[in-house]
Write a structure and sequence with these properties.
Largest sheet: 7 strands, mixed
Oligomer: single chain
Helix content: 10-25%
Radius of gyration: 18 Å
CATH topology: hypothetical protein yedk fold
Shape: globular
CATH architecture: Alpha-Beta Complex
């Protein structure tokens, strides 16, 4: 599971994904669960009757809470974690079933993300960048929730993960469960989208979107332990 990542600069996201949209600002530095971060989705507009949002041509950059707020939530501050969602459970999990069925898929831009490695017997943070120096396009789901008491509109998103027990790099991350065999640990990896698959992820049917989900090859990653500074990982961002 990923609990820390850094988005590109606002202008870099706009240039890469939504060149016709004004630059959307968000807080600098890494993003943590329940903090605001940017994501890219199909552009929304009002329908002809002005009664609700509908899809419009192109995409837009939105800033929302990292931690999807489902329709049934009583508050945007959930007592459980929704910043990561298992891809294999999207169609069945109550929190994600509706966004998945409705095609509310998004791209989460990231310069790097961190994962814990326990091979030494203690937590050593590793940082993952792209070997080609480009930004990651990570798969996610989004939702729009309206506070029933105040009417406040809250945009939110979750980052998808996939079983990585067979991946030679990502299966080294996270604390192992000694009660399970090595090939059934359910180690997780973020879902990396290839540039040529982004359109299918955003605009395709659920079946077309599912077809582009897979584990990224090892050569895509530039990964190494984070050098500690005064005992604290470097969290200054890109």
């Amino acid at each position: 599971m990923c609990n820390r990542y850094a988005p590109p600069r606002p202008q870099d996201i706009a240039q890469r994904w939504a060149p016709r949209q004004a630059v959307v600002r968000f807080p600098a530095g890494p993003v943590f669960p329940r903090a605001p971060g940017p994501f890219v989705r199909v552009r929304r507009s009002r329908d002809d009757n002005g009664t609700g949002p509908v899809e419009a041509p192109g995409v837009e950059v939105v800033v929302g809470q990292w931690g999807l707020v489902p329709w049934f939530a009583k508050s945007a501050r959930l007592p459980y974690s929704t910043n990561n969602a298992r891809f294999e459970e999207l169609a069945a999990k109550a929190s994600y079933r509706q966004p998945w069925a409705r095609g509310q898929r998004c791209i989460i831009p990231a310069v790097w993300f961190d994962e814990p490695c326990w091979e030494t017997g203690r937590n050593v943070w590793w940082r993952f960048r792209r070997a080609d120096g480009q930004a990651w396009a990570l798969a996610g789901l989004w939702n729009t929730w309206v506070d029933p008491g105040t009417g406040e509109v809250v945009e939110s998103y979750t980052m998808l993960t996939l079983n990585a027990d067979a991946h030679p790099l990502m299966n080294r991350m996270h604390k192992p469960d000694p009660s399970l065999p090595p090939d059934r640990q359910d180690k997780r990896s973020v879902v990396v989208l290839r540039a040529q698959d982004e359109a299918a992820w955003l605009h395709g049917s659920p079946a077309e979107a599912a077809a582009v989900v897979g584990l990224a090859p090892v050569e895509v990653f530039d990964a190494a332990p984070v050098e500690p500074t005064g005992g604290t990982p470097d969290l200054l961002g890109p």
